[in-house]
């Protein structure tokens, strides 16, 4: 079946601070527009839910319009609406789901409430084609750090491990604050680390060899905080670049080691890394090295597709439609803690 014969899916993402709208046919990305409210949250050092919700309200209609224009299609051409139903911030999710319901009712088209986390995996298909079955997915973002066994994006996603405290992206934000680097912390720490020596300071590796696929970054964050406090107390100049490099090496060392181990244990030859932290240069480099050594094929979407966007929701919606699953009801509810083993919310 050619891409033109496949349904056109409109995806809406509002789980946190990005209003994302994407248009997808099969594995072809036609339009992808994002309106971010990150600058409005920067002075608070983190996302303010009420501010995010208001920003989604203001951005929704213009972002949908831009996505349609960039794809060269009309709203009437859309065959189905996919929207993030969870997990995420309650108010933010509600804006997106309400908008999706309105579009579905106005167009007389089916509505699909989908899982934000699985969307991060599905988006890789827009760059590298259909996902091999099975695959291991390492999802690394501001709110989530998870290892998944993906046998089928629409129907069979299993959690192998998750973070027991801070997610990796959350730890980046907190350490950036300790080093007086801008929010969000991922990009500035990545830049600083390139100028530092990752061997100068060895920080702890949380849950390094505990026999699970879970993650923990709270202790690492505390170790960095104590190192900074001791330096300030002793009047030493902070080696910001070395601290950033040592911290980052600790994070990516654990992430890549556990991800490759999961591939080997489950006999899976393909690893997908996704989520906002997947844009990190050191994570990509170390993952490439370790996957090559283990004979594992690595797939990482381009940075634009790693962060929250509507394309990933449309991509998952396309998989669910292709699988013939029933659409969600117009009474679809949001679920702030929607489990990853439910790609379709309801």
TrEMBL record:
Its cofactor is Fe(2+). Binds 1 Fe(2+) ion per subunit. Fe cation binds at residues 116, 120, 308. Its EC number is 2.3.1.234. Required for the formation of a threonylcarbamoyl group on adenosine at position 37 (t(6)A37) in tRNAs that read codons beginning with adenine. Is involved in the transfer of the threonylcarbamoyl moiety of threonylcarbamoyl-AMP (TC-AMP) to the N6 group of A37, together with TsaE and TsaB. TsaD likely plays a direct catalytic role in this reaction. Substrate binds at residues 139-143, 173, 186, 190, 280. This is tRNA N6-adenosine threonylcarbamoyltransferase. One of its GO terms (cellular component) is cytoplasm. It is found in: Cytoplasm. Belongs to the KAE1 / TsaD family. PROSITE patterns: GLYCOPROTEASE (PS01016). It catalyses: L-threonylcarbamoyladenylate + adenosine(37) in tRNA = N(6)-L-threonylcarbamoyladenosine(37) in tRNA + AMP + H(+). GO terms for molecular function: iron ion binding; tRNA N(6)-L-threonylcarbamoyladenine synthase activity. GO terms for biological process: tRNA threonylcarbamoyladenosine modification. It holds the Pfam family TsaD. Residues 29-314 form the Gcp-like domain. Keywords: Acyltransferase, Cytoplasm, Iron, Metal-binding, Transferase, tRNA processing. It is an enzyme of class 2 (transferase).
């Amino acid at each position: 079946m050619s891409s033109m014969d496949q349904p056109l899916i409109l995806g809406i993402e509002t789980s946190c601070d990005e209003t994302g709208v994407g248009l997808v046919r099969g594995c072809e990305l036609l339009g992808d527009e994002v309106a971010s409210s990150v600058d409005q949250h920067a002075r608070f050092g983190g996302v303010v839910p009420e501010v995010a919700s208001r920003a989604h309200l203001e951005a929704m209609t213009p972002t949908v319009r831009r996505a349609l224009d960039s794809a060269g299609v009309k709203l009437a051409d859309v065959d189905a609406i996919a929207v993030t139903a969870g997990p995420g911030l309650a108010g933010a999710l509600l804006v997106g789901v309400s908008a999706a319901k309105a579009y579905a009712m106005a167009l007389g088209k089916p509505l699909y409430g989908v899982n934000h986390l699985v969307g991060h995996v599905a988006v890789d298909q827009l760059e590298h084609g259909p996902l091999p079955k099975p695959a291991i997915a390492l999802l690394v973002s501001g709110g989530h750090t998870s290892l998944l066994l993906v046998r089928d994006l629409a129907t069979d996603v299993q959690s192998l491990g998750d973070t027991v405290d801070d997610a990796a992206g959350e730890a980046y934000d907190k350490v950036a604050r300790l080093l007086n680097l801008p929010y969000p912390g991922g990009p500035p720490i990545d830049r600083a680390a390139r100028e530092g020596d990752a061997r100068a300071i060895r920080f702890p590796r949380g849950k390094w060899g505990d026999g699970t696929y879970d993650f923990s970054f709270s202790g690492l964050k505390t170790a960095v905080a104590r190192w900074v406090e001791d330096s300030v107390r002793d009047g030493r100049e902070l080696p910001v670049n070395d601290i950033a490099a040592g911290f980052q090496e600790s994070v990516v060392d654990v992430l890549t080691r556990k991800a490759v181990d999961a591939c080997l244990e489950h006999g899976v030859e393909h690893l997908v890394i996704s989520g906002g932290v997947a844009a990190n240069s050191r994570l990509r480099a170390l993952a490439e090295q370790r996957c090559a050594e283990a004979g594992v094929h690595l797939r990482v979407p381009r940075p634009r597709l790693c962060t929250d966007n509507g394309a990933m929701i449309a991509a998952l919606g396309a998989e669910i439609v292709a699988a013939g699953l029933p659409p969600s009801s117009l009474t679809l509810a949001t679920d702030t803690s929607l489990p990853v083993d439910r790609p379709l919310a309801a």
